[in-house]
Amino acid sequence: MKHGFPSIILWMLLLVLPLTTFATTGVWPSKATGGNIAFTTNEAVTPLKDFSGNNLTIVYLENLGIRKIGGNSNATDVAWLLSQGYRVIELDYANHVNAVSPALNLDIIDINDALVGTFCGLANCSKYRSWVLFEGYRIARDVPYFLDDPKTYNYPSSYLVGDSVRMDIIYPANAIERVPAVLSFSYSNSSASNLNRNNRLNLVNTLSGFNDSFLEGAPANGIAWAIADHPKYCPWGNGNPVGGANDLYKSYEVNPDAAQKVKSAVRTLRALGKNLSLSGKIGIYGFSRGSDAGSMAVGDRTVPEFENAGFNKGISDDVQVAALGSGVFDFRRIFNATGDGDTNLETNCPKVWGPLASNAARWDSMGSAFLVKSIASSPVIFFYNTNDALYYQDQIKHFKAKLDSLGVVTDSVINYGTGHAVPQTAGPLNKVYSFFKTYLTPPSMTVALANTQQERGDCFQGINSFIKQ
Question: Which of 200, 260, 284, 184 is nearest to 236 (CA)?
Answer without folding.
Answer: 200
